[in-house]
């Protein structure tokens, strides 16, 4: 279920840009873009962070690219890794690192020098992969050579003339008789079938070794980067709204946290009620998506509020520019991540952070004019 929710999360984060002016911020060689139609052009950049309705990259990216929107198109070479989420994601340029994409329709037509991880409804791989490939979708078309291992979670796979796998093939399906792997793709002794439910329990033994300390550290730092980036984009797209949410969170944290708990409880509890009504079952995914969005959005607002407080303690004024908001967002994300490392009590503190932030969002949605509307 989580893999189905994540694309909608990124799209939901991007859609507020439809009613706002475009934002294009370049800092330290990186590019931060947001708007209705977002296009990376001009001089080459190090890392790219872009969100919008239609997002396109046409300039070489030396580092990694992070792109989210309804239509995402990569048309320029990426020197490291590419992360994309949207309704349609097209990789039309070579990627020197890994490709991690999710959405409804996913297409890769240029070589990938690292691994490929793709989760969506329709997936098509038409370019060689130097590493491993993990593909999960309703329909998958494979028409390229994979030099490493292949893991497939799908009830429907088509093998093109160029399809081949040098390593092992792991198929996750409840109906193995309907999935045939031609001998030209991989010999029978290298093909293993697993029940579909086992795919969610894959712990890395199929495609990679269990992560070590530095891998976990990279993941921890990646979490800080993701939260800080979302906070920065929110600050660039809707500064007044973010300032209002921060004011609410810091003004009455206890009451706001209780409202956040009530809001999340109502959304999660509605799942049981909707299931009891029978016809309401079709609405359950919407309630679950709303709960996830509220939880993550609340954590971003909560950490941003902490970041503003921390920068104020350090002697800086309230954030009025994109740079100030980025500093507050990443400072809060780092503080929240450090708090989470505290034994026993850390998780309680993190829960308090996202409940207070979620409460501010609940108040903003249910009572748009709850009080102070700061200018920035």
Automatic annotation (TrEMBL):
Keywords (A to Z) from UniProt: Membrane, Signal, Transmembrane, Transmembrane helix
The cross-references to Pfam families, in alphabetical order and at most eight, read: DUF8173
Transmembrane helix keyword on record: yes
Q: Which residues form the DUF8173 domain?
A: 220-364
Record field: transmembrane: 217-237, 258-282, 288-314, 326-342
State the signal peptide span.
1-19
Domain of life here?
A: Bacteria
Protein name listed in UniProt = DUF8173 domain-containing protein
Please give the organism: Sinisalibacter lacisalsi
Traced from the root, the source organism's taxonomic lineage reads: Bacteria, Pseudomonadati, Pseudomonadota, Alphaproteobacteria, Rhodobacterales
